[in-house]
Write the structure tokens for this entry.
Amino acid sequence: MPEQDPLASARPRHVAIVMDGNGRWAQKRWLPRVAGHKQGVEALRRVVKACLERDVTVLTVFAFSSENWNRPVEEVSSLMDLLVVALSREVPTLEGNGVRLHFPGDRRGLSRRVVQGLIDAERATAHNHKLVLNVCFNYGGRWDIAQAAQRLAAQGREITEESLNSELALSHVPDPDLLIRTGGELRISNFLLWQAAYTELVFTECLWPDFDAAELDRALLEYANRERRFGRTSEQVTQGEPLLAVGGDRHA
Ligand code: IPE
Ligand code: IPE
Ligand code: MG
């Protein structure tokens, strides 16, 4: 279908964020890195509120990557503790505000205490529909594609784009429209490798603990000024020519 409401495509339904820069935020203040991670939780609370107010329907954040196990053990264990504490503090409010939590990622390798926290938070918010909040924890894009392929192989199913897509850790949401990376690095760092095939990328120098509604609005404005072509020419987009079902149906 040709786009009816030009503003509809100007607003992303699904925003993804690589929340980077916590350590540098802390180091600039002569604080331990964990102080930056704590402020990062505050930033996430602000951004969830802003997304609820802006009718974003899916927010996916990168909280702990498959590669973050390479950090010093003390930092890894502080991040695990922070997750458990943040869940116990934040879930009641999130639940009351219509947020549904998911934790895409590999649960093997996480402690029983952490896994139980994730399961409880998902259960407590499972009835909500206003905003899906995916907190990617022990997540890697390569892990995601491999685990989806393994599941298909175990079921003896054919591997196609559609079947693989249906087994990915984010199969419950459409692909992200906008991906923001804070902290100034210009890379994906093994985030949504499959799902970001046609996502608009916005990079900002802002360190994650400083990110707020105004920064989100700047990224949304940048997104609104992009032309999403999905392989078509600019003229085809302007004339509202529809995408072919094959290869384009995931983006429609
Ligand atoms: C992102 O902030 C949080 C995680 C990766 C867990 P960093 O901790 O990577 O912060 P910088 O990049 O060192 O400043
Ligand atoms: C990406 O940040 C992972 C998260 C934000 C959770 P990193 O700080 O781990 O990324 P690299 O190592 O600089 O690429
Ligand atoms: Mg970093």
Summary: The CA atoms of residues 49 and 55 lie 10 Å apart. The first strand starts at residue 14 and ends at 18. The chain has a mean pLDDT of 94.
